[in-house]
Amino acid sequence: MIDIFGNEISNIWIENIELAPCRRYDKVLDGYWASKCAKIYSTKTNKWLTPNYRNKNSADPNKRKSFRLTIYVPAGTFEDYNHFSKHGTTCSLSCDLHQLVIDAWKPLDFYTHEIDPPITREEWINLPANARLIIRESLVIDHIESNDGTIECNRLDNLRRTTLNRNERNRKDASMSVIVGNELAPITFGEMVWNPVSQEYDVNVSFNGEEGGEMFDKLKELSEYKQEPMGDILMDILKKGRDEQNGTEALAELN
């Protein structure tokens, strides 16, 4: 494992599990280690740490799927951040589990080529320092396949860095093909997200390519004809499409 200065940091093994040093804000968190399978170990207490749900009482079910841990670091470790200090010597730091895992095994400065969209190592190095800071603070961690609220979903191979926009648009059950005439037209769905204002679920839908554009136009025409929101019409059509007997034939309504 290489730190941000190019120095080698030795990993450790606990119970046949390889662990890399945890990091936060580009600094190694002394005494804390993360595995690729989303386990966190403290050599301060010689124990595996138990993550807690970040917002277990939230009305948004997606927020109830996030795990956090409390990490303790010496006061003054992060000069530009204020954290609760105990007796002026130790500060508590609340860390997301998925952030600890990806930062431990894939420090951003050495893995920009895996960002979606990617940035080459050369491009990253040549960026102004403030531009790198803006990018670093704008990235989010996406659960590639799914996040069903289990710790296992935070394993390294299920995580990627991306932009907020791409995270909302592309993740989780990201593609679905539907029939328009005799051709396939892809529709891309994001994950359903609870909207606390409308007290309803929102979902981002993308109509891709020429076929997707044609479908959008037909859906718009149908919306104007029926005087109903496009989203409501699309959801009604998709519900019909769930019937295996009907399959995608329900979308013939768009024609």
Task: Please describe what this structure looks like.
It is a single chain. The chain has six helices and 16 strands. The protein is an alpha+beta fold. The N and C termini lie far apart (57 Å). It is elongated and about 65 Å long. The strands form five sheets. A five-stranded antiparallel β-sheet has the order 1-2-3-4-5, with helices on one face. A hairpin with a 4-residue loop joins strand 4 (40-42) and strand 5 (47-48). The protein folds into two domains: 12-168, Homing Intron 3 (I-Ppo) Encoded Endonuclease, Chain A; 176-254, no CATH class. It has helices at residues 97-105, 121-126, 129-138, 164-170, 209-226, 230-241; strands at 12-14, 17-24, 27-35, 40-42, 47-48, 52-53, 67-74, 85-86, 90-96, 140-143, 159-162, 176-180, 183-189, 193-195, 200-202, 205-207. Residues 170-185 and 243-255 have low confidence and may be disordered.
